[in-house]
Fold:
Amino acid sequence: MEDYVIRPIGVVRSVLKDPADAPKQGALTEQEAEVVVDPAYLAALDGLERRVAPAGEAVSGDSPRRNSGKIIVICWMHGADRDRLKVHPRDQEELPERGVFSTRSPHRPNPVSLHTVTLLSIDRNVLRVRGMDAIDGTPVVDIKPHSPELDG
Amino acid sequence: MEDYVIRPIGVVRSVLKDPADAPKQGALTEQEAEVVVDPAYLAALDGLERRVAPAGEAVSGDSPRRNSGKIIVICWMHGADRDRLKVHPRDQEELPERGVFSTRSPHRPNPVSLHTVTLLSIDRNVLRVRGMDAIDGTPVVDIKPHSPELDG
Structure:
């Protein structure tokens, strides 16, 4: 099979500086952070402003068309070990090893991570989000609106 | 920013052969398909069997630890136009163009797609899933357990 090249479109800016600071995979966080998009992709953000959470709060609604205030930020976990096929879940040595595809470990053949976050504001190419567990400097590869219907 | 290389870990096998056959982005589907994982990654599937939906049906439970029967299959939409920053939502010409990051269009700088599907069965390296809108031959780059808490 053919290989493909990922060209990051932005970067995470966070007070979380070290992988040891980051919440373990599977843990929820209220951490606020910025997603700084390369200005070359500014046009691609057009329309995302309607996804900003009303009054900074996510809305839980039964209509999938209603603004949930959530977006999915897809990152590349550049510190991951791509050759590991098994891990101890949540880095707990006492738990038996499992295949990485049955875990949310950063270690996996293609270390793509999903972050469903609340979009608090957009200032030109800078998105302020809540619920981001990626550390400072993590490359961002894509941004999508979250759909309760498709993703929930 | 540095580039990264995606090495597909599998491929989608589906009766959907043509992009025109695929449901428009944002549409739900009950389409069944297979995710054929490269046998080199067999060990990485270990533990995923506990994610198989009971009796082939997804369980809706309030406990995030309960098996929802859902996994997230991440694909690379190899037919996408990576240079398009704006699209007509759902390919409807009468809708005004919007930035690709505010849509689920396949056309985007890094054409990674998310498919939250029901895992029906696993036979060695072949996963049978329901709700897959990717066409036959689409490269698969990652598989993760779905978490209602993280992804919902």
Summary: Chain B touches chain A through 55 residues (CB under 8 Å). The longest strand of chain B covers residues 112-123. Chain B is about 5% helix and 30% strand.
